[in-house]
Amino acid sequence: MSTAGLDGLAERLRVVAGAGNVITDPAELRTYECDGLTYHRATPGIVVLPDGAEQIAEIVKACTAEGVPYIARGSGTGLSGGALPRTDGVLIVTSRMRRILEIDIDDERAVVEPGVINLDVTKAVRSQGYYYAPDPSSQQICSIGGNVAENSGGAHCLKYGFTVNHVLACEVVTPDGEIVEISEAPGYDLLGAFVGSEGTLGITTKITVRLTRLPEKVETLLAAFDTIESAGEAVSAIISAGVVPAAIEMMDALSIEAAEAAVACDYPPGAGAVLVVELDGPAAEVDHQFAQVKELCDAAFEIRVAADDTERALIWRGRKSAFAAVGRISPDYIVQDGVIPRTALPEVLARIDELSGDSGVRVANVFHAGDGNLHPLVLFDDAVPGAAERAEMVSGQILDLCIEHGGSITGEHGVGVDKAKHMPRMFTEEDLDTMQMVRCAFDPAGLCNPGKVYPTPRLCGEVPGRRTGVHPLVESGKADLF
Amino acid sequence: MSTAGLDGLAERLRVVAGAGNVITDPAELRTYECDGLTYHRATPGIVVLPDGAEQIAEIVKACTAEGVPYIARGSGTGLSGGALPRTDGVLIVTSRMRRILEIDIDDERAVVEPGVINLDVTKAVRSQGYYYAPDPSSQQICSIGGNVAENSGGAHCLKYGFTVNHVLACEVVTPDGEIVEISEAPGYDLLGAFVGSEGTLGITTKITVRLTRLPEKVETLLAAFDTIESAGEAVSAIISAGVVPAAIEMMDALSIEAAEAAVACDYPPGAGAVLVVELDGPAAEVDHQFAQVKELCDAAFEIRVAADDTERALIWRGRKSAFAAVGRISPDYIVQDGVIPRTALPEVLARIDELSGDSGVRVANVFHAGDGNLHPLVLFDDAVPGAAERAEMVSGQILDLCIEHGGSITGEHGVGVDKAKHMPRMFTEEDLDTMQMVRCAFDPAGLCNPGKVYPTPRLCGEVPGRRTGVHPLVESGKADLF
Fold first, then answer.
1. Which residue of chain A has the CA closest to B177?
2. Which of A121-130, A341-350, A464-473 has the highest mean predicted lDDT (pLDDT)?
3. What's the pLDDT score for residue B302?
4. Closest CA of chain B from A476, distance in Å
5. Which of A62, A367, B328, B464 gets the highest tally of CB atoms within 10 A of its CB?
6. Predicted local distance difference test score (pLDDT) of residue A461
7. What is the edge-to-edge ordering of all strands in the sheet holding B109-112?
8. Residues of A in contact with B430 (CB under 8 A)
9. pLDDT tens, residue by residue, A390-433
């Protein structure tokens, strides 16, 4: 459908959501042309800002009737292009749905709308001794709906898990325009499949999240090591000792340099790598384990312990700014996201170093060391001919390394448009077909965030192509209902 | 298909699995006529004992070609009839698949076949300081494959979660006879939907489980209270204090009486209720919190602390024998399984008491108090006309109570054949249709454990009946592939 052909649909959406909440002006539309994956851009055909599940259901039905694809978007901070619009499609933005509908401290849960900002959940319950545990770096701006779509993690997911571990139920508008409840309940637990489905199985309109008690005590240290190997050994020693820190983050020399340039974080000079280790929990446990951690970091040439929340924030400042800070030392960079078994860390880091040396492409390593989630930052200068291609090559080779070591092509940033092409490197055709069966069941028309997650936007009917013979429903004349 | 009509299929299965591993003798078949839900029985048409994924794939393909339903069975200890056979079907028993294929202590995981007994995983890794956390009461005999199908819990799932929290990947034979890997990986996380799908989405042939470190310290106490209310208040106080015990189990006077009669557990006489509270973890934490728990149980008229593992086993003995023990005080009983928000415990227990008083049907209460998972044992004497019906009525009313209080009709025993009829009391038609879409996607022919979990064994084609108009794939002529 041409952009002009969307006029009728826009008219219908104005009736559904109110004229002021439907955007068709080209200049305004351009604000929505990308999410956090900024090198993929497309101006949406229409943007609509609904105010509730019923409006979203009507929007989905209207798009389906016209055969127009639709994509949901929260705050647009995703790093894999899961909310990349289509010029022939409708972008459904949830920024008007920012109500916290219910807080139930006794049962440790809250019910929120999808546009609610992650950190606002914590702000709403902190005075009662609770918080919302998943903490992506973007938590001051990202939305809970987006977190659900991407199954977002964060520095503390080593101990506390990902979004899926903190969502108890979702109200969802399915691609056939029904409003359903998906929860941990008898029958299939579709919550696990829905959380992290990157907007391809429906649009969440209400989320019941688990609230977590604020820990009695928090301890944070920064340990500076001569080499990345000795920092890696400290990580292994801590985990092997049975300590589960709330976070263990590692930064290498290049990322420390970048953070220093950007935010003057004042990390110990000359470090080959630093670890940020945070423990939280009952005071007795934290005290005991923190002493252990300090001992296990004895190869560090300097250990700083945060005396209070201000010093803790200072330690985290360098780590949290690292991605953006890389912009200070390189005009362009790719944020990679891969996972390896923790035990493979030393070998994979050495191989990344070799890849970097061989290609002349600099790679800064920032990562959630405790759970083997790497975020290599592959640096390049787009003004130099061929530099972007070399960076992409190294970036791809790093993913190959992850797969080779039994890991994964994404830890927490999602597949989106960015990594759909890599899926066949991790999965057999049968595995992918099995996943696609679920997509086709939910979205037979293929209009719900098409082109994301899975490599080939095949017609749903072609997916179970390995099945032979006539489908029993065709035989019985009932196929038209499916 | 008549039983006689299965002869050809039996012949084919003998070629696949070996003649000695296909049972068609009526007397032998009868051994498999039920699982732990003993009041539903059906002699299977054929029993086959395969020895690997490839054989299971061939069996599934053979059944599909003949249009014969098939049902997988582990040790047959399930309490909701999930492995109830069909006289016109094939029962696929995994008892020959009992190999532990791999133990990887460094990465804290093991790969096992589905027939492996739950406790055998722990036995295989205990000397290395690890165990497999999910501990259903039947853990000495139940299989990991069955645990996956039912998403089994246990006394310690308050702290450690259910089977789904300890399974990292499953190799699965899908209803179209493909062998696929389902894991926590990019793309849809189907693991959550597969674990607990009660054998309706395929048959697991290999399971990667998470191994958990043995805790540094364990403390267990038995607290005896005058009334169930004061025991309940102690539970609330413990949870509100932020303590997460490994287990908090409650038994009321009637179940204590039964356990006493069966295993002479020697609980304090005259108790209206007892709590078993267990803490585990780092010694410093356990010591600190155990002192807290003892204080919070100050309404108890007696507290016994286990001095060692023998005394711990003694405390657990009464609790673990409770279900079977009820047989000592009543010729027949229904084991009910429901969930309520923990905060609703006092009110629901009082209502159960009223229901029991009004109907004259005795109800013994044994439950995982920490997570609100009730196991009321509804007692009756089948020899008394109308007694079974009254017991079933009270049992159903208890489920209604659970639903009324925002709870669930099953906590850990599954839906199976037993509770399929109750599903519409929890879910809207749209919710059920959404779940059924997944079933139809996986099993369009409806041969994989049919009649379980969902109420009406409708033809898959009828499920999305709310959709109107012609399906786009029909229009495009591709519907025959779906």
1. A467
2. A121-130
3. 97
4. 9
5. A367
6. 54
7. B100-104, B109-112, B203-210, B167-173, B179-183
8. 178-180
9. 999 999 999 999 999 988 998 888 888 888 888 888 888 888 88
- B409/A462 CB distance under 8 A: no
> How many beta-carbon contacts under 8 Å exist across A and B?
235
Q: Tens digits of per-residue pLDDT, B175-217?
A: 999 999 998 778 888 998 999 999 999 999 999 999 999 999 9
User: Residue B465's pLDDT is what?
Assistant: 36
Domains and CATH numbers, chain B: 4-93 (3.30.43.10), 100-213 (3.30.465.10), 215-328 (3.30.70.2190), 421-481 (no CATH)
CB contact B224 to A (< 8 Å): no
- The encoded tokens of residue B4 equal 């006689």
Cβ of B462 within 8 Å of Cβ of A481? The answer is yes
CB contact under 8 A, A470 and B462: no
pLDDT reported for residue B460? 62
Q: Supply the DSSP symbol for B196.
A: T
**A283: chain B residues, CB-CB within 8 Å:** 288
User: What is the 8-class DSSP label of residue A267?
Assistant: P
B/e letters for B301-314, b = 16+ CB within 10 Å, e = fewer, are: eebbebeeeeebeb
| Residues in Cβ contact with B277 at an 8 Å cutoff, skipping those fewer than 6 apart | B220, B221, B223, B238, B245, B247, B248, B249, B293, B297
Task: Give the span between the Cα atoms of A61 and A59, in whole angstroms.
Answer: 5
> Residues 357 to 386 of A: which have CB under 8 A from any B CB?
none
Show the low-confidence residues of chain B (pLDDT under 50).
1-2, 457, 462-482
pLDDT value for B372: 87
If you measure CA to CA, which chain A residue comes closest to B280? A285
Q: Does A387 touch chain B (CB under 8 A)?
A: no
Those residues whose C-beta lies under 8 Å from the C-beta of residue B39, and which sit 6 or more positions away, are none
Q: Do B242 and A181 touch (CB under 8 A)?
A: no
> What's the CA gap between A400 and A355, in Å, rounded?
12
Confidence at A53, pLDDT banded by 50, 70, 90: very high
